[in-house]
């Protein structure tokens, strides 16, 4: 168990390097078993979720060699077995559910324990299961497990009631080994979907249209051994950009892909933040000017990402004026608000919206990272709070930010990790 202690008030400066995207890396690791061969993944971040996903694959018989010095992950799935992954590991990681699509593609069968709900919302899996059923498989739920079986998967025309990221990924993977053509309509358009499609195609699959609302998969089993480098983490990049804004500092963010950050950058520019691209996925962010309040509504991509909502709540809590933040993706994603209020923020929740009245200053407090992005928001708040902020339950933050305190320290923050 760790906590992070931040002493607010330091100006940030210098350069921060963004890692590969957790949300791209996890499905790609799962999909790596689909070729029945060897996959080498590069620039893989050292994250708790990545370690758990690797353990899950090992529990299925894959051989994993993770060179953590250089972030190179070698996955050998030649001896993968048609067995059920460890319940204990699966329940640690909601994203582990994407192993279903990969296993189904490889063995025409997959069984996994039901992924639990999560604090940010109930997170059902109905769309994943409807998609599998449409591919002519039989879906059974019993004793807390989901089992999906098919004699042979068959291509289908699938309409998603909402553009679920995980369901799109699961169906896309399973459909690579289905006979004929599968079309996913109202598919998720996130950059991480495009990255998975690129990865599958590099292994020999035939996926087109990823990044649009209609994805077509022609049944063609991925079978090639490949090397692949996943995309940069747009949420980590967004978090550091917000750090510059909240601390009124100028920093360089390397590995920030403008194309993936459009909604976030548009909002920050609307607030008055100066952001310049100097090419090669590098942004210079200058937060030394005056910022104005804005309203935000989270939406599926290309809308404003729910995964940046908490960080913006922290930022807007110190921007004079009123901002209204509406969360439409998850039903319970304002848990950071009560922690920010402990630090002096003036925020009121009204149904799915938070009304933020910017205050002059926050004060350090003992707070709890209730989930991954909530934890990041509290560190951001701590960077400008008077005195010391202690963020507890740092394991949530470690799920998705690699060495967050080291990255902040390198650009001038007074921050340390304490082993409790
Ligand atoms: C992914 C991301 C997560 C991000 C989220 C939304 C990963 C590992 N995680 O999560 O960081 O916050 O996208 O951008 O990539 N839903 C259903 N039925 C389903 C599936 C989803 O109703 O079968 C609902 C969910 O409850 C939620 C919404 O759809 O309200 C979006 O969920 P989804 O896009 O599936 O998110 P995840 O893939 O779980």
Automatic annotation (TrEMBL):
Q: What pathway is it annotated to?
A: Cell wall biogenesis; peptidoglycan biosynthesis
Enolpyruvate transferase domain location is 6-407
UniProt keywords (A-Z) are: Cell cycle, Cell division, Cell shape, Cell wall biogenesis/degradation, Cytoplasm, Peptidoglycan synthesis, Pyruvate, Transferase
Which coarse location class applies to the principal site listed for this UniProt protein? cytoplasm
Gene Ontology biological process: cell division; cell wall organization; peptidoglycan biosynthetic process; regulation of cell shape; UDP-N-acetylgalactosamine biosynthetic process
Q: Per the UniProt record, which EC number(s) apply here?
A: 2.5.1.7
Q: What is this protein called?
A: UDP-N-acetylglucosamine 1-carboxyvinyltransferase
């Amino acid at each position: 168990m760790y906590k992070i202690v931040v002493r607010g008030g330091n100006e940030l400066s210098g350069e921060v390097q963004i890692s590969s995207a957790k949300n791209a890396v996890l499905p790609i690791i799962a999909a790596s078993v689909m070729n029945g061969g060897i996959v080498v993944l590069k620039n893989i971040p050292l994250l708790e979720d990545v370690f758990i996903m690797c353990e899950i694959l090992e529990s299925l018989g894959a051989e994993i060699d993770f060179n953590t010095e250089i972030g190179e992950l070698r996955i050998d799935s030649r001896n993968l077995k048609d067995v059920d992954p460890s319940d204990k590991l699966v329940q640690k990681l909601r994203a582990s559910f994407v192993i279903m699509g990969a296993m189904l593609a490889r063995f025409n069968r997959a069984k996994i324990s039901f992924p639990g709900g999560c604090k940010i919302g109930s997170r059902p899996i109905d769309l994943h299961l409807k998609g599998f059923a449409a591919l002519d498989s039989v879906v059974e739920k019993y004793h807390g497990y989901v089992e999906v079986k098919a004699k042979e998967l068959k291509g289908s025309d699938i309409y998603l009631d909402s553009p679920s990221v995980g369901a799109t990924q699961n169906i896309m993977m399973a459909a690579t080994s289905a006979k004929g053509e599968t079309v996913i309509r109202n598919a998720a358009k996130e950059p991480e979907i495009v990255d998975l499609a690129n990865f599958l195609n590099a292994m020999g699959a035939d996926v087109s249209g990823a990044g649009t609302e209609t994805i077509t998969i022609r049944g063609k089993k991925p079978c090639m051994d490949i090397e692949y480098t996943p995309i940069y983490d747009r949420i980590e990049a967004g978090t550091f950009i917000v750090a510059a804004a909240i601390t009124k500092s100028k920093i360089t963010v390397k590995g920030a892909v403008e194309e993936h950050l459009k909604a976030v950058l548009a909002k920050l520019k609307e607030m008055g933040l100066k952001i310049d691209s100097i090419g090669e996925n590098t942004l210079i962010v200058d937060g030394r000017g005056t910022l104005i309040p804005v309203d935000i509504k989270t939406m599926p991509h290309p809308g404003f990402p729910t995964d940046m909502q908490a960080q913006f709540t922290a930022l807007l809590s110190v921007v004079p004026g009123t901002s209204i933040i509406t969360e439409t993706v998850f039903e319970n994603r304002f848990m950071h608000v009560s922690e920010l209020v402990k630090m002096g923020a003036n925020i009121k929740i009204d149904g799915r919206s938070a009304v933020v009245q910017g205050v002059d200053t926050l004060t350090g407090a003992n707070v709890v990272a209730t989930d991954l992005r909530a934890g990041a928001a509290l560190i951001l708040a701590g960077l400008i709070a008077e005195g010391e902020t202690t963020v507890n339950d740092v394991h949530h933050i470690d799920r998705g930010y690699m060495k967050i305190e080291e990255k902040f320290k390198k650009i001038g923050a007074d921050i340390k990790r304490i082993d409790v």
